[in-house]
Structures are given as structure tokens and as C-alpha cells.
Automatic annotation (TrEMBL):
Signal peptide limits: none
Record's keyword annotation contains NAD: no
Source domain of life: Bacteria
Name the record gives this protein: Succinyl-CoA--3-ketoacid-CoA transferase
UniProt entry tagged with the keyword Disulfide bond: no
UniProt GO MF annotations: CoA-transferase activity
Protein's organism: Hanstruepera neustonica
Length: 233
């Protein structure tokens, strides 16, 4: 069994360079690779193209990279909750490609499966389809969307082993599984790293073949984007 465990986040992000394309798992602030993002901020790489459902908030998640002007382009589905993102986009400092959420997921999954492209009905007849190939299937029009091409995918799981097998928990099963294996190098950070053989094979969501590096993260904040509670009686 190949041991994919690395010593820590610094070894995990080795090879990340300026102008690369990187995927980041997570939905809002749920299931984001907090350790990897913080390490990339310290690394100081510039000109990144980031593929992620959203761009975090002003002081957390990908928002930290935005504040340091390390992101050149965001490929996202939802871009609210981040004032700095809005400022950079409206000023022309940040290139933004908005993608329907299902299409974003499928373009990740296509890359993971080795498919060059997929047809989807989402976006046909809108600006999303401009300049793209369209085709009719059974009387319905579809848009051809190409699989993503990324250098690194950074994902976060609840538990994993040294072979790279991963188990996700709760809402972290959002874009994280689809991004595993969808880039040249997939880096997984986990809350708990266990020896090979301790994970129940029936509970594994992503097999280790889709992961190249794995490490145990630390000091997870697990922030809630918008905390809403009911009033006490």
C-alpha cells in the first residue's frame, strides 16, 4: 500500500507556484481546507485561478487570499458574503467566471472521471451559453461544458488514512468529493488521520487512488457563515 501521508501542510502544498489553477472544496465556510488556505497565504503565491463554489468571507477562507491580492481569477457559483470580492470584481482587479452550481459540480466530476466535457441543459439561451457549442438531444437543447483542468485540488475530510482513503462528514460532502482526483495533485487535509485498515471500507467516500497527499490538520475554526438562532421562549 502506498503511503501518501506527508509531514504537514508545508510539505502538502510543495510545488504550488504563481499562475497555477487550484480547486478548493467547501460550501460557504463548511468543509473548507482551512490549513491549506492559510499556508498558501503565507507562501505568497500570486496570480492564482481558484475554482470554488464561493470565495469565503472577508476575513476567512479564500477571502484571506483575496485580501492579499493572490487570486487573479475566481471560477465560482455563488459570490455573496464577501465585500472585498465585490470591490475587486467591480474595479476590474479580479476576473470572475460565474457558473451554475450543478455545472460547476459536473465539470469537477468530469475531470475526476477523465471525461473531456459534458452536456448540460443549464444555461442554454443565456449568457452562460455564449460562444459555446450547443446540441439537441430528444428535443431539448444542451450546452457543452469542458472539464476543468487544475494543477492542485485542496479538499478537507473528517477522517482519512495514510493510503488517502477519505470519509467526509455532514455538509463537507459538498464539492470536496467531486474535486478529489480532478486535478494533477489532490491534497487532502483531515481532522483525524488513522493507520491503514482502521477505516470501515463500507464507509469510505473517496478511495485513496484519487489522493496524492494527505495530512492531519489542526486548529479548525469551522466558522458558521451566518449564525441564525430562534429567540428563547
Amino acid at each position: 500500500m502506498i503511503n501518501k501521508q506527508v509531514s504537514g501542510v508545508q510539505e502538502a502544498i510543495a510545488g504550488v507556484a504563481n499562475d497555477m489553477t487550484c480547486m478548493f472544496g467547501g460550501f460557504g465556510l463548511s468543509g473548507i481546507p482551512e490549513n491549506a488556505i492559510a499556508a498558501l497565504v503565507k507562501l505568497g503565491v500570486k496570480g492564482l485561478t481558484c475554482i470554488s463554489n464561493n470565495a469565503g468571507v472577508d476575513d476567512f477562507g479564500l477571502g484571506l487570499l483575496l485580501h492579499q491580492h493572490q487570486i487573479k481569477k475566481m471560477v465560482s457559483s455563488y459570490v455573496g458574503e464577501n465585500d472585498e470580492f465585490e470591490r475587486q470584481m467591480l474595479s476590474g482587479e479580479l476576473d470572475v467566471e460565474l457558473i451554475p452550481q450543478g455545472t460547476l459540480a459536473e465539470r469537477c466530476r468530469a475531470a475526476q472521471a477523465g471525461f473531456p466535457a459534458v452536456y448540460t441543459p443549464a444555461g442554454f439561451g443565456t449568457e452562460v451559453a455564449e460562444g459555446k457549442e450547443t446540441r439537441e438531444f430528444d428535443g431539448k437543447m444542451y450546452v457543452l461544458e469542458h472539464a476543468f483542468k487544475a494543477d492542485f485540488a485542496f479538499v478537507k475530510a473528517w477522517k482519512g488514512d495514510a493510503a488517502g482513503n477519505l470519509i467526509f462528514k455532514g455538509t463537507a460532502r459538498n464539492f470536496n468529493p467531486n474535486m478529489c482526483g480532478a486535478a494533477k495533485i489532490t491534497v487532502a487535509e483531515v481532522e483525524e488521520l488513522v493507520p491503514v485498515g482502521e477505516l470501515d471500507p463500507n464507509q469510505i467516500h473517496i478511495p485513496g487512488i484519487f489522493v496524492q497527499r494527505i495530512f492531519q490538520g489542526e486548529k479548525y475554526e469551522k466558522r458558521i457563515e451566518q449564525r441564525t438562532v430562534r429567540k428563547r421562549d
